[in-house]
């Protein structure tokens, strides 16, 4: 009779091997006897000891074998170098010469490389048996910057980039000169000023107009007011562009600057930040306008034709504007509020203009310094910052 048979009623009475033979079959790794368990434990210990010995021997081989040592600077390869030289990189790896390649702290070396002003991002890799490979992404300058009596470069993040005059002469940079960016300021503060500069340049060059080529110098001391030194025949004009609507204000300046200068020969500043008016400021040492008497008497001269003069949303005749300016020029301080809604509004702007006058002496010194730098660069045969 077979050992396993099916029940005619559908019930399965198949017996397992344990039930058939009455004994339990154990796996090889679970011996039932004491000697079996002892032998298995000794075998496991022997395997672990052999694995540890092999690991130690491999480590000793990698640490002591001369083939894994960095013999010299020739074992350090770098790519992506333009302004950064090997002489700038090798001091970072000076203590790694003669060291085993597995003991070079790659993360620390990467951070040290990124502390070099021209390095924006660095990658450091081991290449067996004894090579260190470096890949750099360098910063790109976007403007000249004046700090003290030195002219340097600055990138979009506000990082100051130093470059010797001899190397600067080999490049053909055409940037405006920025002031108001100090290396002692925190990086977020410098980046905020550079964001204002980049937005200004992008707006002026919108639609391929290239208006930024007319700008020689920008003062970013106030991160909410881009003060642009506009080169004009005879004297530069400081234009306040604020922090928005740059192209609109630039077009307003271009369309009226000739008329303003004709009416006010000693014009020094133009504040374009207001929607309904333009605030004009005369130079401190400006002499009274010789045509002021005829203008005040409503006798337009050849220097002040009675044409329409638009400032924002208001329109006045040029003769009326110059007449009002003449009255202000005779008094101190010399300020003209063209198209002001009321005297109260003019008084509010007067307070703002008082603060701006404190920076005039500083700007005059900067102009003299720019002339000296231009003469020095011209004599050296290098590139001069953008100017008149």
- Helix content percent band: 25-40%
N→C terminal distance: 117 Å
DSSP strand tally: 15
The overall pLDDT average reads 75
Cα Rg = 40 Å
Class from helix and strand fractions? alpha/beta
Instruction: Report the portion of residues in β strands.
Output: 15-25%
Discrete helix count: 11
Strand count, sense and closure of the main sheet? 10 strands, mixed
* Molecular shape: elongated
Order of helices and strands: HHEHHEEEEEHEHEEEHEEHEEHEHH
Low-confidence stretches: 290-342
In terms of quaternary structure, the protein is single chain
- Walk across the major sheet and give the strand order: 6-5-4-7-8-9-10-11-12-15
SSE diagram, text form:
Layout lengths: L16 H5 L12 H31 L11 E4 L6 H4 L16 H9 L4 E9 L3 E8 L2 E7 L2 E6 L4 E2 L3 H4 L8 E3 L7 H18 L12 E3 L7 E4 L6 E4 L5 H18 L3 E5 L6 E5 L9 H5 L11 E4 L2 E4 H12 L5 E4 L4 H15 L2 H21 L8
Parallel strand pairs: 1-3, 4-7, 7-8, 10-11
Antiparallel strand pairs: 2-3, 4-5, 5-6, 8-9, 9-10, 11-12, 12-15, 13-14
Question: Key features?
Answer:
single chain, alpha/beta, three-stranded mixed β-sheet, 19% strand
Task: Give a structural overview.
By secondary structure, the chain is an alpha/beta fold. It has helices at 17-21, 34-64, 86-89, 106-114, 165-168, 187-204, 246-263, 292-296, 318-329, 343-357, 360-380, and strands spanning 76-79, 119-127, 131-138, 141-147, 150-155, 160-161, 177-179, 217-219, 227-230, 237-240, 267-271, 278-282, 308-311, 314-317, 335-338. Strands 6-5-4-7-8-9-10-11-12-15 form a ten-stranded mixed sheet, with helices on both faces. It has a three-stranded mixed sheet with strand order 1-3-2, covered by helices on one side. A hairpin with a 6-residue loop joins strand 9 (227-230) and strand 10. It is elongated. The chain starts with 16 loop residues before the first helix and ends in an 8-residue tail after the last helix. Mean pLDDT is 75; it is low at 290-342.
